[in-house]
Design goal:
By secondary structure, the chain is mostly helical. The chain has helices at residues 2-9, 16-37, 40-56, 67-89, 97-100, 109-123, 127-138, 143-150, 154-178.
Length: 179
Amino acid sequence: MKGASAKVQDNVDPNAELHLQLESVFPRLWRYCLVVAGNRDRADDLAQAVCLRAIERSHQFEAGTHLDRWLFKIAQRVWIDEMRKQAVRLGGGIMAVEDADLVDTKLDPEANVMGQQVMKEVMALPEAQRTVVFLVYVEGKSYKQAAEIVGTPIGTIMSRLAAARRKIAEKFQDESETK
């Protein structure tokens, strides 16, 4: 209790560091939410829920650890909870990738078209594969880090990535053979 009274005396907000870090990590968190949720509106809602939960549970965050991993874990849990609720209430669906506007339009046209094709195939993957593709290939997380975020063994992460790569490669192989 002595430490808590010292913080109050110094008028230092113990969550100030978390709030500053949250602001810098938010764009990456939102991208992760977009990949998980499949559309912008649901990504906005998910990111907002994650931030709220992170602030409410800031006492659980250990200073000096990786805030992004902690937030991604929270996002994964919130999303799973929301999917369970939605399955009971509505059923729901996912927005078409063409409507999501995910690809950077500043790229040259050929790269932009290829990027859209790849993103379309990634977004067509099952959610579990789509999530690990994002964590490993976009966020640059190690297999171990992705496994911790998603809450599965590393072998499962490796299997999901292999299946995703195979499915995307087959799609592009089929398209090149038909041309």
